[in-house]
């Protein structure tokens, strides 16, 4: 017979923890994307690799009961992610606007 054990954390704690882990994972993906786009600039590549490994260690060490750190990650890293996405969206929109307005310029930049 299967018995159930009492919950060791609340649903709110679990959701906050998973959101914090997603923030860390998202930042790791951003670092990996930046690494993939780098063109052999050693200092920048080394900094990105250090950041990537630090984020991985932080994600691994994070626990569902680390309420203060979970909240900090969601607030601080969440803001970084939103800012990065905003810059990317603005840049992509600007590129699309230039391409629509100046097709010759856009095709020259693509080659």
Your description of this structure?
By secondary structure, the chain is mainly alpha-helical. It has one domain (11-110). The protein is 81% helix and 0% strand. The protein contains four helices and no strands. Helix 3 (67-101) crosses helix 4 (103-110). The longest helix has 35 residues, at 67-101. The N and C termini lie far apart (67 Å). The model has no long low-confidence stretch (mean pLDDT 84).
Derived structural class:
mainly alpha
Number of strands: 0
Percent strand: under 5%
Overall outline = flat
How many helical stretches?
4
Instruction: Indicate the radius of gyration in whole angstroms.
Output: 20 Å
What would the keywords be for this entry?
111 residues, mainly alpha, flat
In short:
The protein is mainly alpha-helical and 111 residues long. The protein has helices spanning 11-37, 42-61, 67-101, 103-110. It has one domain (11-110).
SSE diagram, text form:
Blueprint: H1 11-37, H2 42-61, H3 67-101, H4 103-110
């Amino acid at each position: 017979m299967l018995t159930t054990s009492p919950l060791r954390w609340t649903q709110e704690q679990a959701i906050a923890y998973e959101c914090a882990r997603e923030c860390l994972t998202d930042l790791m993906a951003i670092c990996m994307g930046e690494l993939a786009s780098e063109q052999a600039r050693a200092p920048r590549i080394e900094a990105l690799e250090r950041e990537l490994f630090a984020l991985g260690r932080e994600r691994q060490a994070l626990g569902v009961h680390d309420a203060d750190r979970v909240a900090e990650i969601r607030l601080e890293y969440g803001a970084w992610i939103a800012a990065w996405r905003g810059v990317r969206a603005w840049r992509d929109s600007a590129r699309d606007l230039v391409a629509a307005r100046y097709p010759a310029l856009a095709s020259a930049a693509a080659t």
